Amino acid sequence: MRLDYLTIFPEFFDVLGISLLGKAVDNGIVDIHAHDLRTWTHDRHRTVDDTPCGGGAGMVMKPDPWGEAFDDLLGADPDPSVHVVIPTPSGTPFRQDDAAQLSHADRIVFCCGRYEGIDHRVIDYASEHWSVHELSLGDYVLNGGEVAALAMTEAIVRLVPGVLGNPESLSEESYSQDQEGLLEYPVYTRPASWRGWDVPEVLMSGHHGHIAQWRREQSRELTRRRRPDLLTDE
Ligand SMILES: Nc1cc(-c2ccc3ccn(Cc4ccccn4)c3c2)[nH]n1
């Protein structure tokens, strides 16, 4: 899987060389390239923004640098197997299903906007050539797309076979189908007693059936309290 990031802050993506994702890069499972969008500017000030047509506050990202970056990175031939992800507050919510689908992609290009956003014609042009996903990280406003791209990258890449040491852990996670789409149960480790708090006895019983039942009940109760929207049978 090749991941490209178009951004005016390429150093944001240096962190992808750390930990699990770093190992995936070392193992050749993932190939990461961050690009400074100003590479595709030609004026002395390396300008990437301009005033919004129709007025309004702030600045908008000019289309030219994006188009030239696309030309260099992707060429002009349409290829629906290339996924262009554009983080935006007006996108569809990024969910685990999106991460699962994108984890099968061979190529993903993240377009990280700043200012008040990217000239919409960039999205129109990209949509004619590649598979475009305008995605929101959540119902809050960030200053740009980089943090969202990092979060989406981690959610996507951890699902790629060979990236996680223990793929079994994927099936027990919140939002996974094996977890029935419920929130994850509380987890504990040693010591059995810590600052007056004890590990639930059932987890020390060694009775796997009782433990599984307790975990199911915990997941349902937690989901009922915090995320009733995830419960389908009520
Ligand atoms: N879930 C999300 C995604 C974003 C996001 C993604 C990309 C950009 C490019 C610019 N901004 C700032 C901005 C602020 C106000 C209105 C428009 N844009 C972004 C914000 N915020 N929250």
TrEMBL record:
**Subcellular location, principal:** cytoplasm
Quaternary structure and partners: Homodimer.
Question: Which Pfam family, any one of them, does this sequence belong to?
Answer: tRNA_m1G_MT
| Catalytic reactions on record | guanosine(37) in tRNA + S-adenosyl-L-methionine = N(1)-methylguanosine(37) in tRNA + S-adenosyl-L-homocysteine + H(+)
Q: Which family does it belong to?
A: Belongs to the RNA methyltransferase TrmD family.
Q: Which UniProt keywords apply?
A: Cytoplasm, Methyltransferase, S-adenosyl-L-methionine, Transferase, tRNA processing
GO terms for MF = tRNA (guanine(37)-N1)-methyltransferase activity
Q: Which gene encodes it?
A: trmD
Biological process GO terms, please? tRNA N1-guanine methylation
One GO cellular component term of this record is:
cytosol
What's this protein's name?
Answer: tRNA (guanine-N(1)-)-methyltransferase
What InterPro entries is this protein classified in?
Answer: Alpha/beta_knot_MTases, tRNA_m1G_MeTrfase_C_sf, tRNA_m1G_MeTrfase_TrmD, tRNA_m1G_MTases_N, tRNA_MeTrfase_TRMD/TRM10
Domain tRNA methyltransferase TRMD/TRM10-type, chain residue ranges per copy: 1-232
Where in or outside the cell it occurs: the entry states: Cytoplasm
* Record organism: Cutibacterium granulosum DSM 20700
Q: Which positions are annotated as binding S-adenosyl-L-methionine?
A: 113, 137-142
Q: What job does the chain carry out?
A: Specifically methylates guanosine-37 in various tRNAs.
Q: What is its EC number?
A: 2.1.1.228
Keyword tRNA processing assigned to the entry: answer is yes
